[in-house]
Amino acid sequence: MKFDQLRVLYHQSLFDLISQSRAVHLEHWAGEEVQRCSLLSIKTGGCSEDCAYCAQSAHYSTGLEREELLSIERIVDVATRARAQGATRFCMGAAWRGVSDGTEKFGRVLEIVRAVSRLGMEVCVTLGEIGPDEARKLRAAGVTAYNHNIDTSPEFYPQIVSTHTFQDRLNTIAAVQESGMSVCCGGIIGMGESEDDRLRMIEILSELDPQPQSVPINCLVPMPGTPLADQAPLDIFELVRLIAVARIALPRARVRLAAGRTRISREGQALCFFAGANSIFFGDKLLTAQNPAADLDLALLRELGLRTEVGA
Fold it and tell me: What would the CATH number be for the domain defined by 3-300?
C-alpha cells in the first residue's frame, strides 16, 4: 500500500480503523488462534554495529556480559523445552554484523540449525547481513524463516544506525527471498520517530514481493547505557493503530507482538489482538529484553478466549 493510503487509514477514528482491521484479519486467519514463538540469543554481546537501541552493541557501556556461541547441546535443550511449552517456531539470534560462507562460525550455525530442525518446529534465525550463498545454505540446513528487521523508515534510519545502511538491510532481505526462505521483517517503534516514519516502514514492508510472512512489531525497551535509554513509553493507542494498519496492509502476515510487552497492560494487549496481532514471543527474555512469563501469557489468552496454534 502507498503511504498516502496508509496515512488516511491511520488517522481515521480508532474504532473505524480497528473494525476494518478486524474484518481483514477474520478474512485471512482463524480469529481466535495465536502462534507462540520462542527466541533464544545463541551469541550475546560484542556486536560491532552501533544500533542506538541495542544493549549488545560494543559501542556502548551497558553492563551486558559478552558470551560466545552456545553449544549445540544447550540450544537443543532450550528448543526442546520451548516445544514442550507450546512453541511452534523457535528463533535464534546472534549478535553479529553478519556471517559469511566458509567461516567456522557459519559452519557451527549450520550444525545448530540441522539439530534444531529435527525437532519439528519452524526454525527462524537472525544473524545479521547475509548474501545469496549463505541464504541458500541456511535454507538447505533447515531454516524456514530469516528475521531481518528494517527497524524504521529509511529517512529516520541514519539517526539510529551509522555502521550500515538501510539499503544493506534490503539487500539481505532480497537474498533471503531469492533462496526461498520466508522473510520475518518488522521494526521498532518508540525510538523518537514520527508517526509518518512508522507508516513509511509499513509501506516498504507491504511493497516487498512477496510480502513478509511475519511482521514483528517491537516497542522500544530502553536499555541503560544506550543512546535511547531515556525514551518515554509509547502511547498504547499509537501501538494499536499501527497494528491495525499493519494487518490491513499485510493481510497474510503474522503480525507479532514482540519486544516491549512488559510495558503494555493486559487490556492494551487485548486491543492489539483484536486489531490484528496473532503471534507473540514467550519466555523470560527476548535476546536481552525482559518478556512476560509464559504462564501469564497463557492466562491472558485463556481469559480472552484465544487458543494457541498447535504444531506438527
Answer: 3.20.20.70
